[in-house]
Amino acid sequence: MISLKSVIYDLEDIFSLTGSYDPFEIAHHLDIEIVYTTKLPIGYHGLAVPELNTIFIASFLNGSNYSYFVCAHELIHITEHDGINSFYNANRYSRSKMEYEADNGAIFLLCKYYLYHVASDESVNICTIASYFGLNEEFYPDIEKCLRFIIN
Predict the structure, then answer these.
(1) Mean pLDDT of residues grouped by 10 in the chain (152 residues)?
(2) pLDDT score recorded for residue 11
(3) Residue 46 and residue 70: Cα distance in Å, rounded?
(4) Alpha carbon distance 81, 74 (integer Å)
(5) Cα atoms in the 13 Å half-sphere on the side-chain side of 136
(6) Pseudo-torsion of CA 107, 109, 113, 116, nearest 10°?
(7) What is the DSSP string of 85-141?
(8) Residue-range domain boundaries for the chain
(9) Helix (H) or strand (E) run with residue 29 in it
């Protein structure tokens, strides 16, 4: 199991090189190709294929802020999980431990992205971050955990 601290260490290393917490910019910096496609199975939003160094994202997400979550989720798979091909399925209840880890890593990356690239003087809270990225209430505890970790 990967730890949040492991993801944080890797993420801060990448940030020092890229100056960004944007998962698309990080993927570009790591020479990971992002491909939007209509060929994913119904109900699936993303797929990481480490052997191809490619992340496939459902084309209907192109341009949406939710695509940042899918990209970040798949980026965690490619950088932290060796030898997997993983579909991102929107159904949280049917996912494995690796999916949970990828969700947590993605949430951490998106919290850092929001705080560094988006937040202004408005109050930052769980709802504003979830709303910005199109995440539902099921992610609130994960966002809260990451925000507490970042702030402390």
Answers:
(1) 54 84 93 96 91 95 98 90 51 64 92 90 86 96 93 82
(2) 77
(3) 6
(4) 10
(5) 4
(6) 120
(7) -EEEES-GGG--HHHHHHHHHHHHHHHHHIIIII--SSPP-HHHHHHHHT--GGGHH
(8) 4-151
(9) helix 23-29
